TrEMBL record:
This is M61 family metallopeptidase. Residues 459-508 form the PDZ domain. InterPro entries: PDZ, PDZ_sf, Peptidase_M4/M1_CTD_sf, Peptidase_M61, Peptidase_M61_catalytic, Peptidase_M61_N. Pfam families: PDZ_2, Peptidase_M61, Peptidase_M61_N. It comes from Candidatus Sysuiplasma superficiale.
Amino acid sequence: MEKGSNTAEIQYTVDARDHRLNNLRVEMLFRPPRGRVELCMPVWTPGAYRVEDFAKHIVEIDAFNSAGRRIALEKSDKSSWVLNADGRDITVKYRVHAHTITVHHSFFDDTHLTINGASVFLYARGMESQPATVRLIPHDGWNVVSTGLRHTEDKWTFRAENYDTLVDSPIEAGNHESIHFKCMEKDHEIAIYGSSTIDTRKFASDVEKIVRAQISIMKNVPYERYVFIYDLLPGASGGLEHLNSTHCLADPFSFRIREEYIAKLSTISHEFFHLWNVKRLRPVPLGPFDYSKEVYTKLLWFSEGFTSYYTYIALRKARIQTPAEFMRSNARTAEIFLQTPGRNYQSAEESSFDTWIKFYRPDENTVNSVISYYTKGQLIGMLLDIHIIDRTGGRRRLDDVMRLLYRKTYGEGKGFTEEDFIESLSEVCDGDGKTLYRKLVASRGDLPLARYLALAGLEMKWHSERKAACLGIRMSENSPEIVDSVIEGMGAAEAGVLPGDEIIAVNGMRAKARELKNRIAEFSPGENIRLTVSRHGLMKDIEVKASEKPGQLRFVQNQKAGERQRRNYEKWSYSRWKEGLDYDKVRDPASHLKRNEML
């Protein structure tokens, strides 16, 4: 290390001058104790519960002693290397291929660089608690860099207090637009890469409204500076939370279409609420992290599902969504839940625990065997919120549970358990936390949606223009003539249609993929439809009794609701009862329509 440097500090240099082959050149300078040293690359990144094996992106790697001579570096498993240290400085030089556009990976070309730390930075086992610096050598012509890491006097050099912080702080570099605003006397930055139809002034204003709404819910601002990294790339989507920043991807178009714009803002709202829920208010296993293997928790329904619930609470509280849009956002989730047979085979706890092998590794039978902890958790949050409002006469709501649990656990420097949640829930809603947990969280099957919604003067109504036939299948996105999944309990499943079947004809007439939707629409529920399919090259006729195609689920006001129910409604939805719910102007985003397209 350089004379006068902090020998306990691990120094990373990321060279982004040469974008050929999308390879970043990285150096890691550190001083390990004498003896065997294990260098590791994470197999996953926090917030994305899927084994990624980031070591696969390392193209070459070498180690050098303080004299600059190469030393032996032996690979010990899929993500680790071993060397022998002499107690002096060691430099590890490696190249990382960065060409994956997701919020879990890194991407590098001549236009910009996005670093998600788990996919770029090695760590020395046992030295994860040591501070680190990152120096970026930018591509020629780059002038802007954005990150949640602590800045130094050098624009391109940053500090992290430990490896967890380093991995939890993405970096965006290039010539992106950077918008700054202050909220609650804290600095906020929105770093926007990409050409788009976005109105940056309006977007920044709406992001600020979301920030204010969520701070008013949690009544706590646990940062001095927050950075939104927002990459606009064709076909891209998603978001990943970080300690004092987030990295989001969005398609650059459709910002002027209201439902699509709100969908994009919902990603921002979701990731920002993670600032409290999971980054600080966290299940015990989720920090400090073990990056070498899967980390299990039964509480993702809380960490992700409640965050999904507060996504829309914040949008409504900020007056970004209308009352009807807010209702439809929750009803849309209930619609997905009720159309997913997997709800009968997994509780919210089981879904959380098995995310590594089920939710994050979907297959043709996922719809029949898995329920998303995002989906069920959002609905649990909604039901508990309404229940608490009703039980306490509007004096308390789910916000109080969140704040209490936050103070009791993060406020005391620890994670929380299922028992901690039950205790806080019981304290807020007068003692029935354990019963509620058993019925809503630990149980499989349907949730008591109608009963709890009635407490807020609402009814569940299925809306459709007409009764339409449905086979109960979803087609492959890449090969639309191939059945991708078959929904348990519907006509196609009962008749024996299988994933992988190629639909050739309907009632003896050739049916091309683009015609299938209209061909099925000609029938009525209860009619028999003869499908000719190719299964492993063999032709087969299957007689299917058409099911009724589900309509759009809406939460509508029950005009017979009493004064108590109307007050609950107003408290819960930040809306006045007499405003009503105008669904005529509400549209679902294309992503929902596409995902839920069922024949």
